[in-house]
Write a structure and sequence with these properties.
It is built from 5 helices and no strands. The protein is an all-alpha fold. The radius of gyration is 16 Å and the shape is elongated.
């Protein structure tokens, strides 16, 4: 492992959280790509509003993945965010590439946001139980953004 920039956590604990952070990094990158896939391909009533919203959502997801990646390095690990790693490790259901309906994209994104949100919450619980409140805090920040963006996207669904 490279240099460690945090005190109070033993090597085993740091390794565990580096792995959790990298797993969530992969899911966050996969979710960001799903959001961009929808952004590029959606069509229908309300297009411009959803199109612009998805650009904002992708930017917030990138901010969150940046936090996760940096924390992994702070703990003495490596951020593993290449396309190859994401393709091999992300557990999120692959995003359909041949849909265009706004409603289909909203449904597909909502499903993936819920999946990724649940994975992040598991990381929060694990970090809290192990006494790594800083990692728990970062994961909580990411979780809040995912929840809010899931709500923004889902609010566009027909009632």
């Amino acid at each position: 492992m490279p240099d460690v920039f945090v005190a109070g956590l033993d090597g085993q604990t740091r390794k565990k959280f580096i792995d959790i952070l990298n797993a969530n990094l992969a899911e966050g990158i996969a979710l960001t790509l799903a959001v961009k896939q929808a952004h590029w391909n959606l069509k229908g009533q309300g297009f411009i509003g959803v199109h612009e919203l998805l650009d904002d959502v992708a930017a917030r997801l990138r901010d969150g993945t940046d936090l996760l990646a940096e924390r992994a390095v702070i703990l003495g690990g490596f951020a593993r965010g290449t396309q190859e790693v994401v393709a091999d490790t992300a557990k999120m259901e692959p995003y359909p590439v041949e849909i265009s309906s706004i409603n289909d994209h909203i449904a597909a994104l909502k499903e993936r946001f819920l999946f990724v949100g649940e994975a992040v919450r598991k990381g929060i619980d694990a970090a809290g139980e192990a006494g790594d409140e800083d990692t728990a805090d970062i994961l909580t920040e990411v979780s809040r953004a995912i929840d809010k963006d899931a709500w923004f996207i889902g609010a566009n669904a027909p009632v």
